Amino acid sequence: MTTLPLPRGPLSHAVVNALRGGPDALSSDEPGQSGQPGQPGRFEQSEESRESRAAEIRAADPWGDDLHLALYVLYELHYRGFDSVPDDHEWDPGLLALRRELEGAFLDALRRGTPDGRTAARALDELLVEPVDHTGSVSHHLAVEGELWQVREYAALRSLYHLKEADPHLWVVPRLRGRAKAAMVAVEYDEFGAGRPERIHARLFADLMSDLGLENTYGHYLDRAPAPALAAVNLMSLFGLHRALRGALVGHFAAVEITSPPGSRRMAAAMRRLGAGAAAEHFYAEHVEADAVHEQVVRHELVTGLLTDEPHLDADVAFGVDATGLVEERLARHLLAAWNSGSSALFAQAPAAGRYAAPGVGTRAVAQDHPPQNAVHVPREPRST
What we know:
By secondary structure, the protein is mostly helical.
């Protein structure tokens, strides 16, 4: 478990305050009893409060920090939860109702940002072609010219997913059958170490973080993650937790596995060039080899198996592929824009203002060869060569 993050606006304030047991919970109503069979939920709201909250969600930026932090916190109740937050809040009807409204805003933004009328085959075929222009590629930047502090920032942000790697994808397993289910479980078996706990990919990423001098505790960098990093993780939870979006989850998973080998090869080169350490390089080298095999299984067994059973999900698979590309492109733009201007891509939390603390922006580096003041900083022991 981890501690609750600092809020970034009215939506995340309402969620965090409710989970802390604040007097107003999600509304100005007096909180009821903890959700028990036959009793009202702990966080149920009056009609007036629901309308007020709905208006706040409509006014919120669907790609913004406030909405995505609120959504991330609500999703985390389905994973490891938070310190001092009772486990039964996972299924509180009031919190679930709020989550559904936040998801609606995010899902609408995803659909607006992705093309209509594409087939799964076309969306997947396009992933097989590496672009000639690597201008917007984070892995290319880090492999060729990235600095160690940038690699450390990238690892800190990716830790929100990689320290629970493959967990969001497991939600789809009971929603598949036959060929598709067998393929999904086969790939997930590798992700979870093939029966060897020391080879679980989340464990390998924790070792990578140790090599980089980062704190590898689950959820440690949540307060430093900007909206584009949160959205990338929220996408997986959104698709995974909804049976109606099982096709999109399969499309997302296929996109990740197909694009992983070339990106991981560049990341392994970056770790090697910067002397990040054996475990740091090994994490990505492992993905080059494993995901090259997974790519074939996912495309020819998982996707084909799903669409043989449920051909009406073809457009959903394409949507999952395209939505993954959309959120990853937004994250890449955020990272490269910050780094190219000599700024940190992480948040520096500003002093509390009003009812909640607002996140600051990256601070400009004092000199090109020094990391920005709010970059991830942990003293490192000299590494022998």
